[in-house]
Amino acid sequence: MTTPAFTFRPLDPLRDAELLHSWVTHPKAAFWMMQDAKLEDVERAYMEIAADEHHHALLGLDERGAPAFLMERYDPAHRELTGLYDPEPGDVGMHFLTPPTDRPVHGFTRAVITAVMEHLFEDPVVRRVVVEPDVANTAVHALNAAVGFVPEREIQKPEKKALLSFCTREQFEAARGAAV
After folding, report:
1. Closest by alpha carbon to 91, among 134, 58, 140, 125?
2. pLDDT by residue (tens digit) across 124-177?
3. How far apart are CA 27 and CA 129, in angstroms?
């Protein structure tokens, strides 16, 4: 399978809210913790992100320019992980979500996380990506490992017990090289 070519654009909280609502409230997105969100809740949450200098939401677009996934980038010194670990210069936090589908494409989610990591590392300031998925989300742990993430420890966030994991630029490149 050839790797899909994805592009990114900033999420528009109002224009994209309906699409995003269908993604984040789907049972597949249980770890996104918005299962009971109303459309207005999604609009509000992403309007807050749009106004936040330390948190950004982007849509990943497929070859036709259609929305294919959601990516969030945040500064872990100011959001999500404040006080839960000692951030280093060049750390960036990341979340991603692929939408539900009736026709799964083998390798799609792996292609998405690879594109997300490539996008993050395009910024020369980024030295390390940090993630904090739910400890029970074993599917994302496997994906994270496949692109070079190394778990450090479990942490207790207000909303979940999370697996704090890191991936340096070098670990990502090594994982990409091993996958070829």
Report:
1. 125
2. 999 999 999 999 999 899 999 999 999 999 999 888 899 999 999 999 999 988
3. 27
